[in-house]
Specification:
Elements (H helix, E strand, L loop, with lengths): L3 H4 L1 H13 L4 H18 L9 H11 L5 H36 L13 H4 L1
Helix pairs in contact: 2-3, 4-5
Amino acid sequence: MPDWKQVYSEILSSYAGRYKEARGNSQLRNEILAEVKLEILQHEPEDSMALSQQLRVAIRMVFLPHLDPEGQDDEIAIMQHILAVTRKSQGDGCDEEGAREEKAHPTKAGDYKKAFTPFTTA
C-alpha cells in the first residue's frame, strides 16, 4: 500500500502555496485544511472514511517545511494541542465510569438514612 502523501501529492501540492500565504491566520489555515480534506474524500474510493485527528496532524506536517521558522513554531503548537486533545478524549472513557461510580455512593452520613417503613416502625 503506497504512502498517503504519494497518493494525494497532487492535491497537497496544489494547496501548499495558499497554506503558506495564510501564515498567522489560523482560521484561514483551518479552512484550507477543510478544503484539502473534502478534496481527499472526493477522490477516495467508495469506502471512504473521515480523516482522523492524527491524519490532520500528518497533513500539517507535510506543509511544515514550506513555512518560515515563525510559522513553524505556531503550527507545531497547534499540532501539539490537537494531539493533546485527542489523547485526553481517548482517556476520558475510563475516568467517566469511575466518576459515575463515585457519584452513586453517598458522601455524607445523612445520605445513608432510609425512610421509615411500616416494618421498621413496628
